[in-house]
Amino acid sequence: MRRPAAPCLETTDARLIAILDAPLAPGETVMAGFARKEHELGAMFARLNVLESRAMHARLANPKAGDELASRFARLTIERRSRLLSFLADARRRAAITGGR
């Protein structure tokens, strides 16, 4: 008898939530810790193609009730959220420059 496949726990959402929920490293200041998280989120967003970036931007800019990722993202300071949303919104230009996705 074949067992059903376990759901993939390493989805993009799960990785992004893990970054947002990660504790500060020992000795890491709050400022440095949140700067690190912003950088890690940006690196994850950079892996998305243009359509995925647009969808993620729409989702995070207009959070819906029950969206765990959007809820956690909304806890970032307005400045960090703005920079990350601008990065997502810029996906098409980045793709045109690099000739990529």
Task: Describe the protein's architecture and organization.
With 101 residues, the chain is mainly α. It has a domain at 31-98. It has helices at 12-21, 30-46, 50-61, 68-73, 78-89, 91-98. Helix 1 runs antiparallel to helix 2. 11% of the residues are buried.
Largest β sheet strand count, sense and barrel closure? none
The number of E-state strands comes to 0
The SS-based structural class is mainly alpha
Number of helices: 6
Strand content: under 5%
Shape: globular
**C-alpha-based Rg, rounded:** 15 Å
Mean pLDDT score = 89
* SSE pattern: HHHHHH
Low-confidence stretches: 4-9
- How many angstroms separate the termini? 41 Å
Please bin the fraction of helical residues: 55-70%
Task: Set down the secondary structure blueprint.
Layout: H1 12-21, H2 30-46, H3 50-61, H4 68-73, H5 78-89, H6 91-98
Brief rundown of the structure:
This protein is mostly helical. The protein is built from six helices and no strands.
Question: What are the defining features of this structure?
Answer:
single chain, 101 residues, mainly alpha, 6 helices, globular
